[in-house]
Amino acid sequence: MIYHHIALNTILPPLTYAHDTALPLGSRVLVNLRGKPQIGVVWANHVQPEIDVNKILPILKIFDHEPTLPENWRELIDFTARYYHYPIGQTVFTALPSLLKEPRPIESPESPVFYTLNDLGKQQTPPPKNHAKKLQLWQALFSGCLDMATLKKIHPKAIDLINEYKKLDWLSICTATTPSIPPSQHILNAEQTEVSNTIQSHLHEYQPFLLHGITGSGKTEVYFDVMATVLAQGKQVLFLLPEINLTPQLLARVAQRFPDVPTAVLHSQTATGARGRDYLRAMLGHAKLVIGTRLAVFTPILDLGLIVVDEEHDNSFNQDNELRYHARDLAVWRARQVACPIVLGSATPSLESWHKAQIGAYQLLTLSHRANAIAKLPEIELVDVRRMRLDNGFSPQVLNLLKQNHQNGGLSLVYLNRRGFAPALFCGDCGHTFGCPNCSAKLVLHQRARQLRCHHCDFRQPIPHACEECGNQDLTAVGQGTQRIEETLKNFLPLAKIVRVDRDSMHKKTDWAHLYDQIHAQQVDILIGTQMLAKGHDFPNLNLVVVLNADGSLFSSDFRAPERLFAELMQVSGRAGRAEKAGRVLIQTQLPEHEIFHAIRAQNFAQFATQELAQREMFGLPPFGFQAAVRADALKMSDAVDFLNEIRDVIAPMLPENVSQMGAVPMLMARLAERERAQIFIESMNRVALHRALSLWEQVLAQHRDNRIRWHIDVDCQEM
Ligand SMILES: Nc1ncnc2c1ncn2[C@@H]1O[C@H](COP(=O)(O)OP(=O)(O)OP(=O)(O)O)[C@@H](O)[C@H]1O
Ligand SMILES: [Zn+2]
């Protein structure tokens, strides 16, 4: 008998099972766990059993016709599990798409066949213009070699058309698997060229780059330029971006620039079947360009030649439940593993990456001008609203500008990162506000739906007619949400076409396409939007941005709040003035003297980063020190706090010297979905020591099982 370690979807380490031959590592198998058949992955073979061999169960089934999960992928999983102190088996199951978690054999995709029009085909009349997709498919076949997966992305009925053309003998099969890549529509400017050349002088080796390019400086064009070279060499590219930026606009840009390149798109909304297939296509090297959000960092890739992380500072690369990982950091690890360059791009880099560039661990590349030669960075002005009477959140100055801009035919964006009608409902008699019964959060008023809603746990209730404390029937909606802003502006400018863009208004994928069409047809005068609209979009006509109520987070005790606010305001400002029309940005604030606004007005990231980093260094905060949180939640705060403090005391005598652990404290958002949450911060200036301490925590936590309490470890935690 040969004994194997099998990684299973459990908190236990890989368990031992027997088979009469040695199975290849990375194979999928079926085994019994607690009497139930479960899918597992062979993690080690020829292991020495640590338990009585008579008790070792046999492997029930081997999916031996499937490709095995490759070695470098297993190394990535091992590293992830170790670094984030998470069970290996559960890490495997987070990283796999559903298709591979099913106890069924999968159909392994065959090597793709590439089609092109032959001479006879090229002599035919192309399909008429009113059959746009058919024509597009024809044009793609005319100029390149494409596989079925790529053709299907151009036209869903590609199979039928290919069969038809085959019958007519218009096609030939080509072997070329290195795609032909048409040149860009833009000629890179001098800065872009230099940056691209620098990156390209480091292909085939590990080299991290931090590309700091102001908004609209043409970072995407630089990524594409480097990608074109790597793809033309037949290597694969991993392109990661925040969920919010994975827009149809971006995918259209990719499709236009790389029409022949077999592409896999992996994000949480991709349909299960498609995601599984794309995962395998990347793993087998069929898909050359792998685009996705954070989870795509776990895609096995046969021949990785380049990684790009766009908007690398974005918080959505950090997963904050179950396996708490940072996709950007894992991407850097992967680049080192396979010795390829990685480009981290942003207009407002994370202070972690900026610091690494300052100390020379990353190479800093800069794009300091807008790519479009006539476009300039917008002017940013502050509107001091301290002593002003606001009309539903608007200063008179801002209202006037919006009116003027509408009269002059401009496009304006009103930014407010708060959806709903009003953030709170308030009783003027007794001062009561309506809170969520499950969370420490106020209920948000949604006027049209006639509901109060919790934006954290999605609790909903009808709008009450009277105060639940004193019975007063005169309740006031305080503060502004995007719906109220929309209402106010519609009353103020009844002739303007106003569109609100937030999570409540954008449900379907087609909503975005529709919005773009409307904007490009110049049918929109004013956009009202949350973060969703602030990032990455390129609306050439947009020339006025108004930010309402930017101050909220400046009172936060989260040390990352200023960094986030700076990034947010630079991003939203960066939407203005991207083409011919000069841009203007107004930020309403109660705190115009706050130092963060000096840097924002100067639009000077380096200045901001230097200030912030000096403070972080003084307090030993990341990126100077390393930090992890151990969190516990229970129905009662005292249970969570006591649990953590007890374990802390057990560990204290064993704690490595240069590690400190604080006392347990409630989290900033102390109550969430009926659970009360506490945490202990564990800090060290030495990463290895911190991880040694965390391993201790892991061991002791595992021994202290208490059904009332759930716990987790969050390494490099982003949430306070
Ligand atoms: N070399 C160039 N010549 C002319 N136009 C260009 C050039 N490079 C990029 N552009 C155009 O400039 C605009 C901004 O480019 P791009 O979207 O690549 O910038 P970005 O830095 O990724 O922007 P952001 O970070 O603000 O989302 C786009 O409309 C793009 O088509
Ligand atoms: Zn809630």
Structure report:
The longest helix is centred in the C-terminal third of the chain and has 17 residues, at 687-703. The chain is of the alpha/beta class and 720 residues long. The two termini are 51 Å apart. The protein folds into five domains: 2-101, PriA, 3(prime) DNA-binding domain (GIY-YIG endonuclease); 114-174; 190-367, 3-Layer(aba) Sandwich (Rossmann fold), CATH 3.40.50.300; 379-422 and 479-614, P-loop containing nucleotide triphosphate hydrolases (Rossmann fold), CATH 3.40.50.300; 626-715, 2-Layer Sandwich (Alpha-Beta Plaits), CATH 3.30.70.600. A hairpin with a 2-residue loop joins strand 3 and strand 4. Helix 17 (561-573) runs parallel beside helix 18 (595-602). The structure holds adenosine-5'-triphosphate (ATP) and zinc ion. Zinc ion is lined by residues 436, 438-439, 441, 454, 456-457, 459. Residues 186-189, 192, 213, 215-221, 347, 371-372, 536, 538, 574, 578 line the site of adenosine-5'-triphosphate.
